[in-house]
Amino acid sequence: MATREVLLVNPNLMRPPIAPLGLEYLAPSLEARGYRPVLCDLTFAADWRGDLRAALDAARPEAVLVTIRNLDDAYFASQDFILATTTDIVREAMAACSAPVVLGGIGFSIAPEAVLRFTGSPYGIDGEGEDALPDLLDCLASGGEVASVAGAVYRVGDRVEAVPPRPCDLENMPAPSRRFLDNPRYFAEGGQAGIETKRGCARPCVYCVEPRAKGRAVRLRSPESVADEFADLLDQGIDAVHLCDSEFNLPAEHARAVCEALISRGLGPRLRWYTYAFPVPFDNELAETMKRAGCVGINFGVDHTDEQMLCHLGRDYTLEDIQRTVDACRHAGLAVMFDMLLGSPGETRETLAHAIDCMRQAAPDRVGLSCGVRVYPNTAIARLVREQGPLDENPNLHGVCEDNDDLLRPIFYVDAGIGGDIHKVVHDLVAGDKRFLHADPSELDGNYNYNDNSVLANAIRAGERGAYCDILRRLDEK
Fold it and tell me: Of 62, 259, 338, 453, most Cβ neighbours within 10 A?
């Protein structure tokens, strides 16, 4: 029987490069179902068109999967519409071969039907692909009904149809062999690797795409398989890792179990890992356990400090909770960063000033300030925006406000109650304090947007490793 090859294409051209973790997790599932996954990684291509056509000619695949990590870079300051470049890659693949092109990835799953229409691709997989992609490929090969495949998104004439996704059984899924990608090169040029310990998020944050893209049910991997994956990366010389979980400590019991698995294997002293976490539940005991397991830094997406603004954003913790996270991290010797989201509905100059003052008092190592809330489709803030009337007549919206009903192109909410340029207002409030990383469009080389960040890329080339916010912190402190 001829080899059933599937070309897996990574179209992400951002720098520093981030490894396409989804492809690494997908490859073993394809192999188990009789397919041979072949990688076409355009991240490192000097000529992506030439590399893509060469890969298609060499593999002559049964299907081509293009993973979509980002629709855009999510920054008001730059508004880089990454999906446009990805669409060029998709259409090049469609023109160069007769095999079906299938889209997938978290960026696709934010708005699968809209992305399928935008790119012109015939097929996509909404949600996880470990089961769904082999199912779709088997269906296409046998001439079966695509409508029978969970998660399938497909064209029927001028319409796009979608089948609800079915989540995978992560608990019993073995640890993937981290050898499909060139992980050492990604580590050398990107400074870190990624690992998931769970998928899904049930939090009601008004702006977040995670519940749509990964599901609302939180599904956990076995701590032993997570430890196996860490060990595999260590065997390749990769010791700096950033967890890709929405919030590592939700649930806290699983976070502790993962840490204990790393500690029992003796991996903690050999690792430097970072994670995102939620302000509650978080205490000294968890922070100390994470430290013993090799954690060196935590990024808390606190968003704001004003009680009313937190409520508007769908957050349910307090300023006191935020302060306790700093104290616990300090006690354990962990670097701590807060990410704030400024400009959402109800924001005023007074609430902005209050947030900056509270951050100074809390005194984390760094505070990332995102000005303007990206309005992604299938989120609560998108529903609010639609209720407010036509996009191009809404004084709170900035970016692409015309011919953008599907909200795929960059569009940002900044409450008109601020009464001026939010970047200037925040710039004046920060007043040169290096603790704050501010994405200002007038100073793109000095902010913390990781897309095409030459400062970061040069630092990694010089040997820096770890979370990008921590690399920037260390550069400032030299």
Answer: 338
Write the pLDDT tens digit of every residue in 310-347. Answer: 999 999 999 999 999 999 999 999 999 999 999 999 99
> CA 128 from chain center: how many Å?
14
The CA-based diameter of the chain, rounded to the nearest angstrom, is 69
Q: What is the pLDDT of residues 89-98, one digit of tens each?
A: 999 999 999 9
Per the CATH hierarchy, to which homologous superfamily does domain 4-162 belong?
Cobalamin-binding domain (3.40.50.280)
Q: Percent of the chain scored above 90 by pLDDT?
A: 90
Predicted TM-score of the model (pTM): 0.94
- Cis bond leading into 364, ω under 30°? no
Nearest to 29 by CA among 129, 144, 104: 129
The domain 183-372+414-477 belongs to what CATH superfamily?
tm_1862 like domain (3.80.30.20)
255 near 290, Cβ under 8 Å? Answer: yes
Cα distance between residue 8 and residue 10, in whole Å: 7
Q: Positive or negative, the Cα torsion across 184, 185, 189, 190?
A: negative
d(CA 417, CA 394): 13
Buried-state track 427-441, b at ≥16 Cβ within 10 A, e below 16? bebbeeeebbbbbbe
What is the DSSP code string of 158-226?
TEEEE--------TTPPPPPTTSS-HHHHHHHHS-EEE-SEE------TT--HHHHH-SS-EE--HHHH
